Amino acid sequence: MRDLSDYSQPITDLFDLPKSEEDWERYKLSEDQIASFHELGYLANVRLLDDEQIRVLKSALDEVTDPKHPLHHLFHEFHSNESTDPDKVLFHSLGHWRIHPAFHDVIWNPAFLMASSQLLGGRSVRFWHDQLFSKPARHGGNVAWHQDYSYWTRTVDMQHLTCWCGLDDANEENGCLHYIPGSHRWGLLDKPALAGEMDGLKTMLNEEQLASFNPVPIPLKAGCATFHHPLMVHGSFANHSLKSRRAFVLNVFADGTVSDTNEPLLEGVPVIPKGEKMGGKFFPLIFKVD
């Protein structure tokens, strides 16, 4: 058993890294897709996984969510239930890339790497942290409206990106992601409790923002992803359906981002002093642009 953060490259054959510039071309987003991302604040329905990769990652999720896993201590966070509603369940964790080879290697999925670099303006990309979210059938909890960067202000400049990828089909019935298009231009808002009251963030909005608060559901087939801006307001409702809703999240930032704190950036990670560039084995360079 080993800490997989010691390996800053793929360790299985689950994903094939392209060997030439021509090989990378098949993963490139179109100019229209990139323009839509900047206009709306998100880009949905990007295929990242095939059926076999979905199967392997589902199996991996079942393994790492067991609190008795021998590498459980490597999680940065582990919440068997982060919901504030005692009748709902929201599993949420950070750090499973250190524990299971499949979640380690999904960071080097070429479709994810190419899209991330393009949406960050053609920049080199570093890994920030991963997340798992699992909403069980019938009583899965919500994720409150929030902006990701409101939890990440310990890193600057703001040049981050989030990728959400479903391992189950996600729809309005089982609690798919919702966006507020254009909200990435609202500036930084205060952070609410992530699994608290759904509408806590709305108390922080002005009249103009409230008037344009029109949630758009993002239904996705398993294996498809949505990318969003760090200031995009998003959330997801409870799962009352008969089907689970499991997903993983990969968060990245452009190379050159620095620490803005003298506290640990993640639980169990050595301090990167304020003002120093983010790097090292916990924040590996995953895509380099020459």
From TrEMBL:
Keywords: Dioxygenase, Oxidoreductase. InterPro entries: Phytyl_CoA_dOase-like. Gene3D superfamilies: q2cbj1_9rhob like domain. Its cofactor is Fe(2+). Coiled coil: none annotated. GO terms for molecular function: 2-oxoglutarate-dependent dioxygenase activity; iron ion binding. SUPFAM superfamilies: Clavaminate synthase-like (SSF51197). This is Phytanoyl-CoA dioxygenase (PhyH) superfamily.
